[in-house]
Write a structure and sequence with these properties.
This protein has about 200 residues and is α+β, with helices and mostly antiparallel strands. It has seven helices and nine strands. The two termini are about 25 Å apart. Keywords: Activator, DNA-binding, Transcription, Transcription regulation.
């Protein structure tokens, strides 16, 4: 096992690549997203300490099904699959733990898909802004097209909702940055911060 430090913005894993290791998040926050065949990216979840990444690929022995990016400076413990297969493959408590974490992921993925289908853009955007600014109130808005893809809407609709949030005094949008001014109003808008 090896402890690794990750910086904000790092890409830990890329969808379609082959992973050789399982990662245990011990500090920080990770964003899990997937890319559609049309090139649209969709947020599936945010991971917090003691969540696993790469477990499904470990069991299925398949390419990475999602992309994992660092939202805040983070630390992970990297455990090579080879070691897990050699030392833990027939260890019942380990296998039960894996089963529990994988079924939890499928439950969360179902909830995320429902969230993107059933909740309006203003709720999804409020949730996204809260999830992406847990420690600092500022977010790079250089790629609003990416944000629109991530929350499952159009660029134009995203801009309209950002303007509504700005008019309400919840955010400001200047020089390629979105600054959260009123977290409590965004929390009220998001209701339950489903991306968490």
């Amino acid at each position: 096992m090896q402890l690794e430090n990750l910086a904000l913005g790092d890409c830990l894993l890329s969808q379609g690549d082959i992973s050789q290791s399982l990662y245990l998040l011990v500090e920080g926050k990770l964003k899990i997203s997937m890319l559609s065949p049309e090139g649209k990216r969709l947020i599936l979840a945010f991971k917090t300490p003691f969540d696993l990444v790469g477990d499904i690929e470990y069991i299925q022995q398949c390419p990475l099904i999602n992309t994992v990016e660092v939202v805040t400076d983070s630390r992970v413990i990297r455990i090579p699959y080879e070691v897990l297969r050699k030392e833990m493959e027939n260890h019942v408590p380990w296998l039960q733990f894996l089963l529990g974490t994988i079924t939890q992921k499928f439950k969360m993925k179902s909830q995320a898909m429902n969230f993107n289908l059933f909740y309006p853009v203003d709720v999804r955007l409020a949730s996204y802004l809260l999830s992406m600014t847990p420690k600092q109130p500022q977010l790079d808005s250089a790629s609003l097209i990416d944000i629109a893809d991530l929350i499952g809407t159009s660029y134009r609709h995203l801009n309209r909702v950002l303007q509504q949030f700005e008019k309400a005094g919840w955010i400001t949008k200047k020089r390629g940055k979105i600054t959260v001014l009123d977290r409590s109003s965004l929390l009220a808008e998001a209701g339950q911060n489903i991306y968490e």
